[in-house]
Each structure stands twice: as C-alpha cells, then as structure tokens.
Design goal:
There is one protein chain. The chain is α/β, with parallel strands linked by helices and 259 residues long. Helices cover 27% and strands 18% of the residues. The chain has a five-stranded parallel sheet with strand order 2-5-1-6-7, sandwiched between helices. The chain has a four-stranded antiparallel sheet with strand order 9-8-11-10, with no helix packed on it. Helix 1 packs across helix 5. It is globular and about 60 Å long.
C-alpha cells in the first residue's frame, strides 16, 4: 500500500516546523514509520559550497551521495517530483509535508496567525486550523479547530484523514472532474480515494528479456499513470482494463511491459 500524506501549511515563521516535529514524535510513539518532506520556494543551495559532494556536482555529476555509518545525504542537481521523493522514503506509512501551499491533492492542517491567513490558505482540503479562532469548513467542522499543544488530537486526526497522493492526471475515471475534486470529496467524507483507479498498482508487471523485474509501489504507479495517460488520448480507447506494451531496443518485436 502507498503511504498516506497530510500537509502542514502556513506562511513563513508561522510554526510549521515545530508542529511537524511534535506530530512526528507522537506518530512514531504510536508505531508509525514517519517520513517528512519540506518544500520551500526559496532558491538556495542545500549542499555546503566547497565540500566534496558539492565539488562532485560542480564537476558535472547529476547526483552525489554522502554516506556515514549512521546517516546519509543525497544531493541532486535537479528538482525531483514529489512522487519521486516519496519513492525514496522506503517503508514510511505516514508522510508529513511541510509547506506545499499549492499542492491540491492532499488534506492539510493550516497554521494561521489570523483569519486573513485562513482565507488565503483555504482550498477546501483543510482538516484543521491551528493558531487562530477562524473555523474550518471541512468534515466535522466547526469542532476541528485545535491549538498546537493539542498534539495527540492532531495526531489522531492525521491517522484518520491522511490519504495517498493522488496522481494529478485529472482523467475523470473516478467520476470527479479533477484529482482536487476527488481529494476535497474525500476530506469531506463524500468519497474514498480508492475511486482513483490510477492508485491501484497491483497487476503492473515489468518484464525485461523474458524476466520479471521487481518494482516497488511508486515505480508501478508511475508506469501505470504514464501509460494510461498516453493511451487515454488515443481515438477509440475508452476505459481500458488491460494494456500491453512491447518494446525492443533493437527495433524488433520482443517482450515488454504489461500494465
């Protein structure tokens, strides 16, 4: 099963990092494997200029990795997609996102200093508002508003409301006009994310030179999404149930991927 996500969103210096820190500790105590992804609009180098990993990338390496007996750090000379980042988090079952104000396919906890912040941040995906008296309009409102200190209640909310990352294809096969509409319906309790057929990765099989290659959930999801997105644009194709693709690096017919 893919990990489930909740975003903690707010403006600069609103307390996002502190809340994510507290939620991470509480959720780990409850037995979850928690991953955290932070997004910032600021463009600055995360690696230390002059250090070895920095020098490798300046020499032209696409990526460099720093490995020690206790931790590791990856530096890429590009901005990966959120799906790619999630795929590198291993066995995390819950992922907290910090920031991601423009992401419109996951439930959000808003940190607001005043009602004006709530108005600017609100997208219909909020499951709670922390930090001011403005109340949300999500499922269960108006009893969803909580303060940062109420970490246990917020952690329970994350466990209840977190959902897998919808692919953003807006294919309409779920019955909604867009992935955002399905996410909002799920937040309000009107639908389940299982309506998204692109989240189902079982049945995706990759065969190379006659050998089945094991692929993880996110690779399978990417393959399914890309292939279905292309196929759905073809004339005469409607709601396919089985798609088979055969590719050959020599231009001859051979075994390929089946989705």
């Amino acid at each position: 099963m893919p990990p489930r996500l909740v975003a903690v969103t707010g403006f600069k210096d609103s307390g996002k990092t502190r809340l994510v820190e507290l939620l991470t500790r509480e959720l780990i105590e409850r037995g979850h494997q928690v991953g955290v992804i932070k997004h910032t609009d600021q463009s600055h180098e995360t690696d230390t200029p002059g250090k070895d990993t920095w020098r490798y990338r300046k020499a032209g390496a696409y990526a460099s990795v720093f490995v020690t007996p206790v931790e590791s750090a990856y530096f890429f000379s590009s901005s990966p997609t959120l799906v790619e980042v999630i795929g590198r988090l291993g066995d995390a079952d819950l992922i907290l996102l910090e920031g991601f104000k423009k992401l419109d396919t996951v439930p959000k906890i808003l940190i607001a200093r005043n009602p004006h912040d709530v108005e600017k941040l609100s997208s219909g995906l909020e499951i709670a508002v922390v930090g001011c008296d403005k109340r949300t309009t999500g499922r269960g409102a108006p009893n969803r508003e909580m303060q940062v200190e109420e970490v246990k209640s917020l952690a329970s909310l994350v466990e209840e409301e977190a959902m897998p990352l919808l692919p953003g294809l807006n294919c309409g096969r779920c019955g909604y006009g867009s992935c955002k509409e399905l996410a909002i319906a799920a937040v309000k309790g009107h639908a389940e994310t299982t309506r998204c057929l692109n989240l189902v990765t079982e049945g995706v099989q990759l065969t190379v030179d006659g050998k089945v290659v094991n692929i993880n959930t996110f690779v399978g999801q990417v393959l399914r999404n890309v292939i279905l997105a292309i196929v759905s644009t073809l004339k005469g194709v409607e709601a396919p149930t089985l798609v088979e693709v055969k590719l050959s690096s020599t231009g001859e017919e051979g075994e390929g991927a089946k989705a």
